[in-house]
Structure formats: C-alpha cells, structure tokens
Specification:
The protein is mainly α. It contains five helices and two strands, in the order ββααααα.
Length: 120
C-alpha cells in the first residue's frame, strides 16, 4: 500500500512511515519531521512550505486549532440562542403594555413569531 500526499510529490511506503509524518503535521512541526521523505526533501524545500500546503500556522498545531474553531462555533451558537430568547422576552413584555395602539401590538406579535420561526 502506498500513501500519497507529501509535498515532495513522493509517497510513503507504509502506514508506519506515514504515521511519523502525520505526528509532525498534527504538532505543526514539519521543520523537525523525522520521516524518510522530509529528511530527503527538507534541504530542497521552499522556506514557506507550510504556507504553500495550506497548514494553519497556530501554536500547538492543527488539532488544537480545529478544537478551538469548534468551541468558538458552539459559543457563537449559544450567544445567538440567548440573544433570540432575550428578544422574545422583551417583545413579549412590550406587548403586555396596556395602552399600546393595535398596530404596534400587531407589529410586536409578528416580530415574536418571526424570531420563534427561526428556531435554534
């Protein structure tokens, strides 16, 4: 079995040799990769090789970057849900005002319905 995808254009001959390279990719430490392909390719590799193959340049490597992005998306979703609930609560309280003209009451009810229709 051969595993292709090294920026040198060569392939890994086994899962074990690819695993050494994968570990360096996950750590985002290609400069110190000890796989057989990097050892022969590194002297001729361009200085910006990590950028050319589109690796995220973050401390700790690609796995922490992916986890951080997932956490950020979840936090944004929670913030949006809280904002929607607060909007519905405010609109519901506004609709309870006794002396509102009917047209304002209708506008508020429609706003509440449209927010509820968006859902989580």
């Amino acid at each position: 079995m051969r595993i292709y995808g090294h920026p040198s254009g060569h392939y890994f001959k086994s899962w074990r040799t690819w695993g050494v390279h994968l570990t360096s990719l996950l750590k985002e430490d290609l400069q110190n990769c000890s796989c057989c392909l990097c050892a022969s390719w590194r002297p001729n590799a361009p200085a910006n090789a990590a950028i050319v193959i589109d690796l995220p340049l973050v401390p700790g490597g690609a796995v922490p970057a992916a986890l951080a992005a997932t956490v950020a998306r979840e936090q944004q979703r929670v913030r949006e849900e809280v904002a929607a609930r607060q909007s519905v609560d405010l609109l519901a309280r506004a609709s309870e005002v006794v002396d509102l003209p009917e047209w304002q009451r209708v506008v508020i009810q429609e706003a509440v319905q449209s927010i509820l229709a968006l859902g989580p």
